[in-house]
Amino acid sequence: MNGRSTLIVLLPLMCAVAFLTLRDTLSTGGTADTVVAAAFVVIEVVLCALASRETRRAR
Fold first, then answer.
1. Is pLDDT of 42 > 70?
2. Is 1 exposed, middle or buried (0-12, 13-18, 19+ CB in 10 A)?
3. Which residues cross the membrane (predicted)?
4. 47 contacts 28 by C-beta, under 8 angstroms
5. pLDDT of res. 24
6. Dmax over Cα atoms in the chain, in whole Å?
7. Residue 41: alpha-carbon gap to chain centroid
């Protein structure tokens, strides 16, 4: 597997982990943890969008 296909395989897993982290953080009520988890979610969404664009471009 090249780097791009590895990234495409790992992105859904990373997005799921970021979502679960944010959900758990919100349920515990930690403000600083919520900000960090939200930042991770934003980063993962941007990476998912970039990977999606690269996938469409590769076709």
1. yes
2. exposed
3. 33-52
4. no
5. 72
6. 44
7. 5
Angstrom distance (rounded) from CA 42 to CA 19: 10
pLDDT at 51 over 70: yes
| pLDDT over 90 percentage in the chain | 0
Contact 38, 22 (CB under 8 A): yes
Residue with tokens 């471009």: 57
CB 48, CB 15: distance < 8 Å: yes
Q: pLDDT confidence of 50, banded at 50, 70, 90?
A: confident
For the chain, the domains span 3-58
CB atoms within 10 A of CB 56: 8
